[in-house]
Amino acid sequence: MRRQVIEKAEAAIPQCHCGEVNRLLKENSTYRSSKNSLVGQRRHTLPASEFWCLTPEDAIGVFEIEREAFISVSGDCPLHLDEIRHFLNLCPELSLGLFEEGQLVAFIIGSLWDQERLSQDALTLHKPHGTIVHIHVLAVHCTFRQQGKGSILMWRYLQYLCSLPCVRRAALMCEDFLIPFYMKCGFKVLGPCEITVGSLNFIEMNCAIRAHAFVRRNSGC
């Protein structure tokens, strides 16, 4: 059923759906090198560490990290392999990977959403004219956990979203035990999420992108 929804969604979205976001990325000098935009390009940030948007070719590596991170905890993955490919084809510019010495160690995958709260459709749809980035998943490779990689990646991702004028806020759903982590990243609790996956219930959280930019400007970072 989820695969059928994805196929219908891809057929309904025009080919130019990412054009405006790509244009903004290319015009933004903070998130590009001297010759290339962030989309599809590596950008050196720290010794041996790089952040750049993912591509469909990264899908298998992404899924391996995600599967190891989530299956043992919740019994399922936020995104299956076909869904990862789906979003990395439709909106790769809303993903971000942390690579160390060429190895993917952590990643975020997002898509645009056009309603105030997340609904079941948000699991599979990308709304090109939306102003909310739905963060589907953040995962860190098992070897690199407990090192602050997830926090670093989320901070960088939110700063990246600040460069996109069309993005108003970021939203996600999580289990109760993850609420403190996301609150430290700047998210606020909205309440129970209407989305359920099997027997799992979630809390919906969001982060105002402009407010996040203000916090950074006044943090001395």
TrEMBL record:
Specify the pathway: Aromatic compound metabolism; melatonin biosynthesis; melatonin from serotonin: step 1/2
GO MF annotation: an example:
aralkylamine N-acetyltransferase activity
What keywords tag this UniProt record?
Acyltransferase, Biological rhythms, Cytoplasm, Melatonin biosynthesis, Phosphoprotein, Transferase
Extract the Gene3D superfamilies matched here.
3.40.630.30
Q: Where in the cell is it found?
A: Cytoplasm
Which chemical reaction does it catalyze?
a 2-arylethylamine + acetyl-CoA = an N-acetyl-2-arylethylamine + CoA + H(+)
The region annotated as signal peptide is none
Residue ranges of domain N-acetyltransferase in the record: 49-210
Write the Enzyme Commission number(s) for this entry: 2.3.1.87
Which ranges of the sequence are coiled-coil? none
SUPFAM superfamilies, from UniProt?
Acyl-CoA N-acyltransferases (Nat)
Question: What GO cellular-component annotations does this UniProt entry give?
Answer: cytoplasm
Read off the InterPro entries from this record. Acyl_CoA_acyltransferase (IPR016181), GNAT_dom (IPR000182), SNAT-like (IPR051635)
One matching Pfam family is Acetyltransf_1
Which GO terms fall under biological process for this protein? circadian rhythm; melatonin biosynthetic process; response to light stimulus
Provide the family line.
Belongs to the acetyltransferase family. AANAT subfamily.
Name it: Serotonin N-acetyltransferase
Please tell me the species this chain comes from.
Crotalus adamanteus (Eastern diamondback rattlesnake)
